Amino acid sequence: MPDSSESDLIDGRTLSQAVRDDVQSEIEAWTSDDHRPPFLSAVLVGDNPASEAYVRGKEKDAAEVGIETETHHLDADTSQEGLLDLVYDLNADPSVDGILVQLPLTDNINEQTIIDAVDPSKDVDGFHPENLGRLMRGNPRYIPATPYGIMEMLSRSDIDPEGMDAVIVGRSNIVGKPLANLLLRRTANATVTVCHSRTRDLAAHTRRADLLVAAAGQAAFIDGTMVKEGAVVIDVGINRVEDSSADRGYRLVGDVDSEDVRPRAARITPVPGGVGLMTRAMLLKNTLTAARLRAT
Question: Distances in Å between the alpha carbon of 268 and those of 5, 36, 117, 212?
Fold first, then answer.
C-alpha cells in the first residue's frame, strides 16, 4: 500500500485539527465578550467499549477548545423512563447548551423516542425531526456531525462537488439521507444517488461515481472493481476485525477495501484518521452554535 504521506489521502487528522483551532479561537473571542464557556452534557448508557472510548474522545476534544462537559453514565439496566427523566432534566437546565445521547442505546430503549425527547435547540447531534426538517428546507440549526464533517473535508481539500455524480452507499438518518441533502443544495450542486441493501446491481452505480461515499457498515465492502478511475472516495465506516498481530486483538477498517481501491482513487479518506475525526470536530462546532443560540 502507498505511504500514508502521499497526496491522494485526505488527512482527517490535519483537517480536524484546523477545525478545532478555529472553534477554539471563536470560543476565546466568545468568552472574552463576557459569555460563559459552552457546556455540553453527554449521556452514556451501559458499558459499550466503543461508545465509552468515543465519549472520552469527545470530552478530550471539548476540553482542548474550551467547552465544558459532563458525562452522565447510566447502568445498562436503566429503563427508558429513567433515561427520559434525565433528558427532560437536561432540557430544563439553563446551564446546558448541548445534549448528546451516545448511540447505540441498550435493547430495552427505543432510540427514536429518546432522540425525539431532546430539546431541538440543544440537539447538537442534529438528529431531532425538527432539525432534520430544517436541514431539508435549507435553513438548518444543526447539521448532523458526520455529513457536516464530510462537507467540511471536501471544502478544505479544495474538492468541489458541483456537477459530480455523487453516489452514497447507505441511507441512514445519521449519514446517508442528510448527506444527500447537503450535496443537493445549491452551494454543492452534485447529482446524487443513494444506494442501499435493496439496490439492484450496486456496482453499476458505484462505478459511475465521481464522488463515492461508503456508509454501509460492512468491512471492506467496496473493492476496486466497484470504483471509477479517478474518483474521490469517502469512507465513513469504522469496523473492528480480528487481528491476532495487533496489541488489542483487532484492528479498525473502513467500508472500503483501501488497499484495493486506493490505486484507482484520485483522493481517499483513511480509516482510522479520516471521517471519524471530522465528526468529533464538527460536534464541537455545533456545541458553540448552541451556546450562541441560547445567548440570544
Answer: 12, 39, 37, 9
